[in-house]
Fold this protein.
Amino acid sequence: TGIGASLIVAGGSMMASNIMSAAGVEGKTASIISSGLNITAGTALMFIPGTQALGASMIGSGIGGIAGGYISQALGYSFTTGAAIGSFAGAIIGGQVHKGIQASAALKAQPIGTPFNPNGTLTQIGVDPNTLTISRTLNPAKLSAVRTTINKSGMYGTIRVMQNGYIIDGNHRVAVARLLGIAVDVVIG
């Protein structure tokens, strides 16, 4: 869908520029207006569920069109040609940025283990460290040392927490577990 959407967006942008040029608007001005409309419409689409990818492509197309036009002009070539090329490239980049953001959000949404249950058993195995509350300032040197140990030997010991999920002992291990995506074992008390 990335290149297809990019072709549609860039093609629509070029068509709008051509219509404005045919109506007597100077080519550079028509390209800038068209790019501005792409940015505006793309921004609106970002708020409508299911249309964010197209919106991101339109925003990229608009920004790319303006940048491409000015770069082309600075190099001694036609503004409108640079705007057309920039519009297409920007649409691809905008779509890819959106795809990357979605992939990142999907990874973050994945639970690492089971949520901490304050009313559960005193010992809970495989708890998502993101459901626990770090209760003190972390020491960067200790964090690095704990990370090295866990990378080498795996998670060690149980994390002691209060019933509300605040960590009594194991703040650094929980912080590392969050970074590495590792579930932890918890004991309340």
In short: The helical segments are 2-22, 27-45, 52-74, 79-109, 140-153, 171-180. The two ends are 53 Å apart (CA to CA).
